[in-house]
Design brief:
The structure is a homotetramer.
Chain A (H helix, E strand, L loop, with lengths): L1 H13 L4 H10 L4 E2 L22 H15 L4 E6 L7 H10 L3 E7 L17 H21 L3 E4 L4 E2 L7 H18 L5 E5 L9 E2 L4 H11 L3 E6 L9 H10 L3 E6 L16 H16 L4 H5 L2 E4 L8 H20 L3 H9 L3 H13 L3 H11 L5 H8 L1 H5 L11
Parallel strand pairs in A: 1-2, 2-3, 4-6, 6-8, 8-9, 9-10
Antiparallel strand pairs in A: 5-7
Helix pairs in contact in A: 1-14, 3-11, 3-15, 5-6, 8-9, 9-11, 11-13, 12-13
């Protein structure tokens, strides 16, 4: 590995890359993992139960701590309420800190109560809207209790048939509910508004695309931003363009990383289209270099949101985190000055080559070196699998907590 | 209604339509409803339980009998094994007949057993493949016991990640399994092989399109045909073209009717794109008029396969059946001679107008008249809702049988 | 026809429809046709030249006058600069008025000059951006000269490869160019900003979706709105939802009507998915009934934008106009009070039925009656085809003006 | 470079890769370039004319010879008739050989004659069908004259509107035409039947998917196979699955390489989704290792088919060829034994990792070494750009031959 790294470093330095700076950037890059990614999930056809799945939030946090232990870049864990509801959040905070972690985004669940059959904040019934808003306010309280600054909002609200709901009424209800939430949030909290093309609504979704999320967020003001989930777009969408656009508007709040080939498949991030993931990071790195977008770019919340239906959960999470880190590392190697020069000269092939060649670089020597310097094993997956934790987990048996 | 019908009939007869023949055709047209369409279903996010859902196959059949009672065109019911597994199929047959119904297609379930996590007939483990084949052979026995002639085969087999499975190995296992099934089937039985673009497999599906189903069916021979589910195609697919192609090849076996806007949404057939449904029936009616395809066309099995996640089940089924009947009735009104003439003359707008104008016709007067002549209420939905059955069903309570 | 209408009217009045009001609405509804829709167009593979295609703007206007003569609802014609550039716009205005027409939207062409190879207002070269802005300013002058109040802006700007352009630089250039245009426009003029998912850019398009057009328009202010072209969305997009959303924001400016099955196919509007067209009008009619959106709804510019590649141009335009009128008429028949009531009650099937049943109505008797009252032939297509104009046009020969 | 290669080779050998064998494979791998890829092309909106574009087939061949000179793997050139029609094919053959090249696939053009407005071999007019067949027979003669063994068949046949054509009539005409062609072909010739989802037909295409091409090819028999163009599928299609399926059936005949994000964008292969290209080669390499599919795999015709609308033609072609070679090289590095073992064990993450890790390898050191051993410059693009040919080409001026 060592000789490999030396040759690698030499080649980059010849190209003028400041390798030390790249390494610093990689070391400070963080990705949040979700508590629900350690539990069972599945499709509408079947949830295959895995042995060793956590039976409580505490066990989910233990699993998350393993991911952080081996990757070194996952110090925070997103929670989902009420899946992760407990009596004493002080205890959660304490336990989390004892694992070297902290709680990240708080995610209200507005889709699994029977009352939400026809929607939550967009329900035609004002009592159900009230209930939904109250649940969000409860999550603000929880966020305060666990010292989290982010509410991550996904609304499953939508309809299945033409005529079922009134688009504009529902839009107004959404805006009103978000305004109530805004009023209850502390000034240093952010709400990240997620959009989704479809599912579970199969005719319309109340926040169907980034433009709708952006419109809502803009009306709310500085506490609201948009959350981009990589699986929530129509086929063919240029996601990196949306990312750049939102960055420029100061409205890019965060990501739910995963990958998809068809619908919202929730596969391991980078597993289906690694180049797209890289191109997204290419925009994020470019944004961080530009004074106009720097502050927004540096506050983007990077979060995993996947469903490991058939693969083991902890290794799948490690793989995801490493894929994200890989894409980020490659994006750091793009020669931005040369790129800009070629863009300005109309050198189509030349500009494309600058971006593409960074992607072609094998960054495993670099990442191995960075990990070494961080006191980690160079191959986190191997280290985890050899640690025995995966076997120990089995003692928990089958039937741990899933999405419900 | 009556005056409406007279004016309607007059207008059609002016155009040279043989209205009596059209009425006869409509009277002999049948659609099969699925036992599982009366039970609870949902998305991966939530199954909203409805009150009054059947607790047994027998109650499902009672619901199906209601649909037949008011529409007059649903005398058969598809079953799903093991969801509808019972000890005594003789009893099922007897009960079904007592309701004026018969059992239609038998659907093996090859996706809900834990063993099928990595596939059923395409599983790398030969014992699981054997188990899957045995389950299909069991379904042949059940088909014999309930006097059904159709096995409807949907394989959820697929993979979630590149490299997970070997496409060609799995293809061979599929072919071998179908051959074993073929050998066990009676000569007057048919297997209908369904294809699906994706879900629950999110990287590949072993029978991903009609071409794969067709290839398997062609190798099996005369007992095998292709089953078209309207929700199982990529966006934009010209389904009526595939229908015509399969008809011409003698390999169109049947339909699973439903509708979709995005993925396999399983919405009420005709609710999202009624023109597409009409264009499909336009091909089926054309095929039935042509000696080359007549036999195939007349043996096509028309079956509903939907998930009524948020709407009441029996009314949703009635609506679906009526939408299918409406599309069929309109297709019968296409002036085929004029259409052919214009097609041969390169009269693009003229040919399009012939097809389109049949769709524009309001066939409610015609269908009302047909129902009157069949001794049915002219508005089946109204008649059902006024019958009190929907209220009576509620006595069953919440928690009837769903997909599992 | 007459008896048909009486029965039809009776049935609607039984349902409480104010038929006279519906007729008035239909009479005041207008659709604009585009000058370029009368000329040759094609695909990248081939432009099939048709005989009789106009050789000048004046002949295009003559063709447009025919469409208005028989449909009665197409008094204005959109023009495309420089395709329709002339020396003396006073002459154009006079000639147009002599035909009983007026000039509608002015469309700058920013994609056919060799300078625009890498973009127009988003070109990295400031001189080309300046040239593009100047062309838009020239169009403002032309609009004044022909008394048009609308500039219809479609930017072909985009890139073909990752890295080719800088998304955020280009966004800023777009915003700056629109601001220059805004400053030059009169207070009673509007710019309608079109968006498009892809083509001719195959990697990214600078205004790729409604959200981007909306963001630009919002920053410009009251003179800017969004233009919806029905062929410019990703597969599966719920266009009626976007329409309702933009209406609610006061930012829906107009439509380019056409239809598509795959990409931006530019087929006759309503020919592929008539139900979608109806659902869009359902939102527009609903918006016009609501004080909040009434003003926006009443100022929406309805424009055809199609490519009649293989079908005769004038009949294709008549068909398109009639399809739009049909969809509008059906939308006027939706029982909005009953719909709202059922929406508020969570009656999914009932609400859907209200919308769907209006679509099922055959409005040909109604439209025939309306035309009779407007002094038009009941069947505009038949009347046009019998008029001899189509034959007379042939004298123009082959080789009229196309897109270039 | 040299030290880089040594480290690279060492790492591969540690993993058990037979690097010499890999190098041999890469050296014998060939890609065909198309004569029309050197000429002007564009979108329906605009063809931007480039300076230096070839004015004759002979100049196209000179450009193709440059691509071969620097890449070493492009010895054959596909031609398009009548674009490349000449009086004396003997002269072409001689000239081609003098450049160290040979003529590859012959492509009949069945879409640019005015007679083909409503189709070629599927035209309702038997005289036009006859004309189309005769053109294909002419191409057989040309193939004999230039010693080509492959006819590459793309039919633009399709319709734009429902009802315009009769799907089944047209299917029969297609089959009859192919049978006539088959009868005229020599036993050692192959026809490769291309399919396409849409465009230029926007409602239906007569050979819309691989299943239709396969059905036609199967009826023709051994001389017919399927041609896969990477831009001709619906969004989301798993192309590598289709490739494996056709390989297994012995019906995979060849490729038209390019890339797409939306429709048939015809971008540089590998520029949008390099992982997909790699996964396709992964199947081809696997197929070549399997006795069952070896012969088919070894006879697959690899051809580029792109439109370089805005980028310089020769460099774009070099880039494409290198991208294909890169994907192939990475596919050769997949550890097939380990992959199979993990597939059989249900090790989802492990199997995925084997495939993915081969993709992550930077093969530039390997390819540089291979080129060195072949007597080529290690960086073909750099060598070409420094050669001065690009400047010399400019003498040809603007207005060379494009698609017409």
């Amino acid at each position: 590995m060592s000789k490999g790294y030396e040759v690698w470093e030499e080649r980059q330095m010849e190209k003028g890359i400041d390798v030390e700076r790249v390494k610093e950037k990689i070391k400070s890059f963080k990705v949040e993992t979700p508590s629900w990614g350690y539990g069972d999930s599945g499709t509408r056809f079947k949830v295959f139960k895995q042995a060793g799945v956590p039976r409580s939030l505490f066990e989910k946090l233990e699993d998350a701590a393993q991911v952080h232990k081996y990757t070194g870049i996952c110090p925070s864990v997103a929670i989902h309420i009420p899946w992760d509801k407990v009596d004493d959040y002080g205890e959660v905070k304490e336990f989390t800190e004892s694992l070297g972690l902290k709680i990240g985004a708080v995610n209200p669940n507005l889709f699994q109560d029977d009352d939400y059959k026809f929607g939550s904040v967009c329900n035609a019934n004002p009592e159900i809207r009230k209930k939904a808003v109250n649940h969000m306010l409860e999550c603000v309280e929880i966020a305060r209790a666990v010292d989290s600054k982010i509410l991550s909002l996904w609304f499953a609200d939508g309809t299945n048939y033409p005529g079922q709901g009134d688009f504009r009424d529902r839009k107004h209800w959404m805006q009103e509910s978000l305004a109530e939430l805004d009023a209850a949030m502390d000034d240093d909290m952010r709400m990240l508004i997620e959009y989704k093309f479809y599912e579970p609504g199969f005719y319309h979704t109340d926040i169907a695309d980034w433009g709708m999320a952006y419109t809502f967020a803009t009306k709310i003001g500085k506490k609201a931003q948009v959350l981009v989930d990589l699986g929530h777009h129509p086929q063919g969408t240029n996601v990196e363009h949306i990312v750049a656009f939102l960055l420029d508007e100061g409205k890019l709040g965060g990501f739910h990383f995963n990958n998809r080939k068809y619908g919202d498949d929730d596969l391991i991030v980078g597993s289906i289209n690694p180049y797209e993931l890289f191109l997204i990071f290419n925009e994020l790195v470019a944004g961080a270099c530009d004074p106009w977008t720097k502050e927004t770019a540096e506050n983007v919340a990077y979060m995993i949101d996947q469903s490991h239906n058939i693969e083991p959960k902890v290794p799948a999470m490690i793989r995801s985190v490493l894929n994200v880190q890989t894409a980020y590392a490659k994006a750091l190697l793009v020669d931005r000055e040369l790129l800009k020069e070629r863009q300005l000269n109309g050198d189509v092939l030349g500009a494309e080559a600058v971006v593409r060649e960074a992607f072609e670089i094998d960054v495993r020597p670099l990442l191995g070196k960075v990990r070494e310097e961080m006191g980690l094993a160079p191959d986190p997956m191997k280290a985890y699998l050899e640690s025995g934790y995966e076997q120990k987990k089995l003692e928990r048996g089958i039937g741990g907590k899933g999405w419900e």
